[in-house]
Amino acid sequence: MCHLILMLPVLALIVFWLWPVSIAAPLYAVVFLASGIMYFFLMRAIRLPVQTGVEDLLQSMGKVIDAKQGVVHIQMHSEIWNARSHDELHPGDTVRITGVDGLSLDVEKSTLERD
Q1: What phi and psi values does residue 70 have, to the nearest 5 degrees?
Q2: How do beta strands 94-101 and 61-68 pair?
Q3: Could you report the average pLDDT of every consecutive run of 10 residues in the chain (115 residues)?
Q4: Strands (E) located in the chain
Q5: Enclosing domain of residue 38
Q6: Spatial distance between the Cα atoms of 21 and 39, rounded to a whole number of angstroms
Q7: How many CA atoms does the CB half-sphere of 65 hold within 13 Å?
Q8: Are both 38 and 68 inside the same structural domain?
Q9: Is 38 in a helix, a strand, or coil?
């Protein structure tokens, strides 16, 4: 589908074979302008930061809600995750996610406030 959108100005050249130039040129100008506007918004959407998946998790901040016997649970984006850390963590500590291994997060203690 996106290939058709990108090819729209080329496909619109057919109007020059169907109608006289006095009708085809303004029609083609409208198609060309509409394509330019679509390209602008598509390029803007492509440049948006990632909002899902592992890429979003990395470098995000979370809050420790439970740390008992080496098992740490953190809350991040209204979800509770299993975590592991080399730092000593206590409930209420703010952590930064440094890695993802399956359904467990690698975290490190952070001195920054939570997002």
Answers
A1: 80, -5
A2: antiparallel
A3: 77 93 96 93 89 84 90 91 92 94 92 60
A4: 61-68, 71-76, 79-84, 94-101, 104-109
A5: 2-46
A6: 26
A7: 10
A8: no
A9: helix
State how many domains the chain has: 2
Could you tell me if 101 and 57 are in contact, meaning their C-beta atoms sit under 8 angstroms apart? Answer: no
**Identity (one letter) of the amino acid at 33?**
L
C-alpha–C-alpha distance, residues 17 and 8, integer Å: 16
Q: What token pair was written down for 91?
A: 């409930």
Joined together, the tokens standing for residue 42 give 């598509």
Residue among 58, 46, 40 at smallest CA distance from 99: 58
Return the pLDDT at 1: 56
End-to-end CA gap in the chain: 38
Q: Which residues lie across from 71 on neighbouring strands? A: 68
In a domain, 114, yes or no: no
